[in-house]
Amino acid sequence: MSLLDRKLRRDLVALRGQVITIALVVASGVAVFIGSISTYNSLLSGRDRFYDSTRFPRIFVTLKRAPLAIVPRLTTIPGVATVEPRIVRDVIVDWPAAPLPVSARVVSLGHAGDEPLARLFMRRGTAPGPHDTRDAVVNEAFADTNGIKPGSDIRVILNGRLQRFTISGIALSPEFVYAVKPGLPIPDDRFFAVLWVDRSAAEAAFDMIGAFNDLAVSLAPGADPKSVVAELDRLLEPYGSVGAVERRDQPSNRFLEDELNEQKVMAITVPVIFFGVAALLLNVALGRQVAAQREQIAALKALGFPNAPLAIHYLKLGAVIVLLGSLLGLAGGIGFGHAMIASYRAFFRLPALDFELTSWSVMAGAVISFAAASAGVLTAVQTVVRLTPAVAMHPAPPLPFRRFWLERLLPRMLPPSRTMIVRNLAGRPVRAALTTLGIAFAVPIVVLGLFWRDAIDHMIEIQFRLVERGNTAVTFPHPLDRNIIGDLRREPGVLAAEGQRIVPVRLRAAHRSYLTSVIGLRQGSELRRPHDSSLRPIEVAPEGITLTRRLAERLAVLAGDTMTIEVMEGKRRKRDVPVNAIVDEVIGMTAYMDIGALNRLTGEGDVVSAAALFVEPSALDRLLARFKELPVIESVAMKAYTLRSFLEKIADLVLITSGILTIFAVIIAVGIVYNSARIGLYERARELASLRVLGFSRAEVSRIFFSEFMVEVVIAIPVGIALSQAIIDLIAHVHPSESFQIPGVIGARTFIAACAIVIAAAAGSAYVVRRRIDRLDLVAVLKARD
Amino acid sequence: MGEVTVHALRDIDLDIYEGEFVVLLGPSGSGKSTLLNILGGLDAATSGEAIWRDHDLTKADDAELTRYRREHVGFVFQFYNLIPSLTVLENVALVTEIADKPLDPHEALALVGLIDRLDHFPSQLSGGEQQRVAVARAIVKSPDVLLCDEPTGALDYDTGRLVLAAIARINEQLGTTTAIITHNAAIASMADRVLKLGGGRIVGEERNPRRFAADEVRW
Questions:
Q1: Between A333 and B29, where is the model more confident?
Q2: How many helices (H) and strands (E) does chain A have?
Q3: Of A83, A161, A562, A735, which residue has the fewest beta carbons closer than 10 angstroms?
Q4: B182: alpha, beta or left, given left = phi > 0 and alpha = psi -120 to 50?
Q5: Helices A307-345 and A3-14 sit at what angle, rounded to 10 degrees?
Q6: How far is A347 from A650, CA to CA, in rounded Å?
Q7: Residue B213 DSSP SS3
């Protein structure tokens, strides 16, 4: 072992406190980087494998009824590979245990589950074979939530008749990774099931012999989906097609995409911020460490060591720290990724979701860390070797302290012990700024973990206190005369009821189009009130259409533009309408019209198809039970309740993420404060010992020394809060979800928690260094030459 | 390497009287610095007694020693140990923050002849000037004891004499008990009493019939 290597080993032992804290910072950066990227890639490949192996269709069409005889014609559309006609119908499930009506989507099977498109992935049991009219397969999410096993019975109301199916199997389907109940923005597995039955059973139940009302289509490689959609729409319009949609707008896939995009944002923004901070800290901490060895470097140079071996020696110091950090980070990243994937498993209904380490992320993490370390080391070494050994062997010249301009603004006679603090900060402005910035960045890292709760609360607040102000929503099986609303108002416990007309439409603006629903509202509607961006309620104009912001962005229209609305049911009318206003809602992509204008457009008279109710909470259970009996009620939803329960599911995920990020933020804060304090102590040991000799107590000396850090922390906290807001705004801005929009809202409790954690971490590391101040060897320090 | 117990001092029996000017003379390793550190409450003797007025310094804990230094002792060191971020006046004023009956910092600086450099930072001063600031800082709290460890060790002849003159003036004008340790025998002529140390013991003691003024000292 060369002498320099022996020195390296001893330096590592002597600097163990710094080595460990810096390595931990590297480890956190590498862990978040590797963990997030690998998790995202694991989710993507889990989805892709599932979609591939189950032959997830590219295009979906819903129609009224078409004869199977036209299927051969559809397969000749250029670009179409496979066409699978099906019978799909929503039914009510007789499920007495559930507080809300449970509905199910019945989907016909033509090939005993081994469908050419959207094949079932059987978890347990088997799918019903041809002509088996008694068995059914249920989706795993519903089965798990409701304790259904193969052999259980399930009763559904088919065309007014109660029919019993025996569950023969439990399956996953690429079409229902999320089973989203129509009319709800998010899945609620308690109240929505998917049942697959043999085609013969569906034909009999829905009187669909020789016919279909749903089509799944796959495309030949390189085919243009747009032209296929157009052709399908043209051919199927006479059969009541609601319009073909591409995979991206298929509800389950859209929701899955939104979730993945959210992960992508988190997988990229968080590690980038984090890694940036870690790299900066590594750079600064190692740089200072080397600078502190100035006299040693000079002495080695004077002894004849050339520059290169010296630089390599210090690079090795950096490399050991980075290697240690990267190994810890790799282990941490794998653990982090496994924890994330485990919490995702309950959330993404994919057959196999395993953590797969993305190998390039490991390499990239280590290389970036080493580059940051090397930059810090080389800059510091270069500064020293550029000096002649004679100059370098002297201690660094004292800082050119001078009166700081700010002092003039301070009280006239600042005590000298305070003046020291001000001048030390002002004398090293870059260092003070970097330390402050580093501590400041620990705040948004904690906030990133915790802010989800605030965002979710805010989202619920906006959507369910301001916009959807009823507590119950019901839909009717078909449009009804508005007198039904009067009947609903007379139900016991109903305090308010308002009719709505919800119409499926395709909105078109230039080459863009989107399938959604328009909600028709009466003037002065109280239970559903669209709001503008400043949260002021706005009235829907008597003519024209009002769009939610996300929908307007998707269609690239502004208020004042004209767009085309195509009704996808009934007489299927088309009309150009002006865009009256854009409203800000956090959930869904809806459009609003005046109910009168909408009914004129559809030509159906004064009808309603849904109602928003405000029900006295104590009367809810009784009313819901009654609704289950009423044939006029197709579905009942309590959206706020649904959203709450859904969000509880992601609570685990939020907890894991915030827990891990908080640990890393603590590591960052500790790394910065501990290392700055150790270097500061090294540089100012004489000064502090002098103060002790002059009669200052340990506490007084520590107070003088740490006041500098206190000032830095005090400045860092508001900076950190501002940084947090900027980062969260950025995330909210780039968050590409169409299901719901994350608002850039951070609650006071999150800020308080984040600041408390950062301050505690700083105080803890200061305490460790303080013990060193208490142990200062006064005599030895004073004997040393300046 | 095994632990070797080294006795820096042994069999020391010494009285220093109030207002006295004592020089402790000895070569390197004679134990004079250790003696001064014990007298100043920077170090504790492993055995024996060190009594200042009615305080036993050997039995005192860190807090008591700090209070002793704070209230009664002024130090001057070979390497000045000024606070680099504070001006001359501020370095001296720093001590008045913790002293009960301090002098005016201007007065202390006048005593060492630095009244015209109040706003300079240590890095802008010569070694002799820095040491005179250190002396002013040591006396501004009006200590009962002024302890100086090689106060001229890092200075040239002329500036060394300026510093010694300042120390002597303080002893005469304020009646501060003063002890200087040095290996420079010439300085001994300024003292009331000279103690010679060697091998950790007092090997000689003499009383000067007349104290020389600083400008009479030659080396």
A1: A333
A2: 22, 20
A3: A161
A4: beta
A5: 50
A6: 7
A7: coil
Chain A residue whose CA is closest to B120: A402
Q: How far apart are CA A154 and CA A201, in angstroms?
A: 14
Q: For chain B, what percent of residues have pLDDT higher than 70?
A: 97
Half-sphere exposure of A469 (CA within 13 A, CB side): 14
The tokens of A216 are what? 């799944």
pLDDT band at A164 (very low <50, low <70, confident <90, very high): very high
Residue with tokens 């956090």: A586
A401/B97 touch (CB, cutoff 8 Å), yes or no: no
Question: Does residue B2 have a pLDDT over 60?
Answer: no
Provide ipTM, 2 decimals: 0.88
Please name the residue of chain A whose CA is at the shortest distance from the CA of residue B86: A420
CB-nearest partner of B83 from A690, A692, A698: A690
For A172, phi then psi, to 5°, come to -110, 150
What is residue A737's predicted lDDT score, i.e. its pLDDT? 66
Q: Give the residue extent of every domain in chain A.
A: 55-251, 428-457+641-786, 472-637
The answer to whether residues A498 and A595 touch, using CB atoms and an 8 Å cutoff, is no
Do the beta carbons of residue A473 and residue A639 sit within 8 Å? Answer: yes
Asked if B66's CB is within 8 angstroms of A697's CB, the reply is yes
Alpha-helix residue ranges (DSSP H) falling in B74-156: 88-96, 105-111, 127-139
B94 touches chain A (CB under 8 A): yes
- Determine contact, residues A297/A377, Cβ cutoff 8 Å: no
**Residue A255 and residue A249: Cα distance in Å, rounded?**
9
Task: Give the angle A222-A224-A225 at the CA atoms, nearest 5°.
Answer: 120
How confident is residue A1, by pLDDT bands cut at 50, 70 and 90? low
pLDDT score at A91: 87
Closest among A25, A31, A217 to A115, alpha carbons compared: A217
CB A180 within 8 A of CB A131: no
* Residue A556 pLDDT class (50, 70, 90 cuts): very high
Contacts of B81 in chain A (CB under 8 A): 686-687, 689-690, 693, 782, 786
Q: How confident is the model at residue A786 (pLDDT cuts 50, 70, 90)?
A: very low
According to the model, what pLDDT value does residue A496 have? 93
Contact A731, A269 (CB under 8 A): yes
The number of angstroms, rounded, from the C-alpha of A688 to the middle of its chain's C-alpha atoms is 49
- Amino acid identity at A563: M
> What stretches of A533-586 show up as alpha helix (H) in DSSP?
549-555
Q: What are phi and psi of A263, to 5 degrees?
A: -65, -35
Of residues B43, B93, B122, nearest to A416 (C-beta)? B93
Q: What is the distance in angstroms between the Cα of B44 and the nearest Cα belonging to chain A?
A: 11
Alpha carbons B124 and A220: distance in angstroms, whole number: 84
Looking at beta carbons, which residues of chain B come within 8 Å of A419? 85-86, 90
Give me the DSSP letters along A105-125: EEEEESSTT--SSS--EEEEE
H or E, element range at B157 = helix B157-174
- Token pair 């969000």 is found at A647
Structure confidence at residue A539 (pLDDT):
87
Q: What is the homologous superfamily of the domain B21-216 according to CATH?
A: P-loop containing nucleotide triphosphate hydrolases (3.40.50.300)
Tell me how far the alpha carbon of residue A300 is from its chain's centroid.
53
**What integer pLDDT is reported at residue A54 of this predicted model?**
94
Give the global pTM: 0.76
Question: For A373-403, b where at least 16 C-beta lie within 10 A, e where not — what string?
Answer: bbbbbbebbebbbebebeebbeeeeebebee
A507 contacts A516 by C-beta, under 8 angstroms: yes
Rounded mean pLDDT, A254-264 = 81
Q: How far apart are CA B138 and CA A707, in angstroms?
A: 25
Compute the average pLDDT of residues A333-345.
87
Average pLDDT of A57-68? 94
Whether A333 and A35 have beta carbons less than 8 Å apart is answered as yes
